[in-house]
Amino acid sequence: MSLEISRTEHESGACVFKLVGRLDATEAPLAYDRITGQIEDRNNVVLDLEGVEYISSGGLSIIIRLVHHLRDQGGELHLAAPQPFVKRVFDIVSFEAILKLFDDVDSALEAF
Question: The pTM is what?
Answer without folding.
Answer: 0.94
